[in-house]
Amino acid sequence: MPRSAQAMDEEQQELAERAGRLFSGRVEFLKSAPALKFLPDPDCPEIAFCGRSNVGKSSLLNALTGRKAIARTSVTPGRTQELNFFEVGEPTAFRLVDMPGYGFAKAPPKVVENWRKLVRDFLRGRVPLKRTLLLVDSRHGVKEVDREMMRMLDEAAVGYRIVLTKADKIKASELDAVIAATGVEAKKHPAAFPVIHVTSSEKKMGIEELRAAVLADAEI
Ligand SMILES: Nc1nc2c(ncn2[C@@H]2O[C@H](COP(=O)(O)OP(=O)(O)O)[C@@H](O)[C@H]2O)c(=O)[nH]1
Ligand SMILES: [Mg+2]
């Protein structure tokens, strides 16, 4: 028997409330891993965040967790080349993984190659990785460097949600166009979710919905 719309609404509501409690409760930095041998034990679900340097990843992590500086917001793009792990919940319900940003100018080829290897090996081999969030700046839309990231996710068969950031920075009409174009792009990628998330860490837009989505992903 199909579930009623009301039952689904109630489930969604319950999920959103649980997500709100988890993200406003214990969130703790666990460790940085500059190479796979430093990864924490694969003993709980993980959700990873990736995107170009300066896309607003640290700001989004801070907004999701309601902290000012759980993840450092930086004006020096591309400095970190590590996977940063944060635990959410008491006891830990899941981990957030802050992946190193990409696409920064003037990166030496060796740095780019290290980035590619670390990210690819992590995506391919990480058993508890449930989902990745691919952040895209609303003002720029999907760029070629993002497509490379999308191809890596497709190849590793890690499902991902595309999250538009800094939605407060552009006009509503422009935002609609970017959402539509991003949706078209997502359809070309087998591991991409068709639904595009729209957020602003500055204006706290789309944050509650994204918390619920992350929790749902962690529980699959
Ligand atoms: N207006 C606006 N600016 C943002 C938003 N999110 C991030 N920024 C700014 O974009 C810059 C890069 O943000 P950051 O979180 O450090 O990006 P990261 O390099 O991806 O971690 C900073 O100057 C932030 O203040 C947003 O939602 N709205
Ligand atoms: Mg950052």
UniProtKB/TrEMBL annotation:
Keyword presence, Iron-sulfur: no
Lineage: superkingdom: Bacteria
Domain EngB-type G positions: 43-220
Keyword Magnesium listed: yes
Entry-linked Gene3D superfamilies: P-loop containing nucleotide triphosphate hydrolases
Pfam families: MMR_HSR1
GO biological process, any: division septum assembly
Keywords per UniProt: Cell cycle, Cell division, GTP-binding, Magnesium, Metal-binding, Nucleotide-binding, Septation
Cofactor annotation: Mg(2+)
GO cellular component annotations of the record: cytosol
GO terms for MF: GTP binding; metal ion binding
PROSITE patterns referenced in this protein's UniProt entry, alphabetically: G_ENGB
Role: Necessary for normal cell division and for the maintenance of normal septation.
Cited HAMAP family: GTPase_EngB (MF_00321)
Family: Belongs to the TRAFAC class TrmE-Era-EngA-EngB-Septin-like GTPase superfamily. EngB GTPase family.
Protein name in the entry: Probable GTP-binding protein EngB
Gene from which this protein is expressed: engB
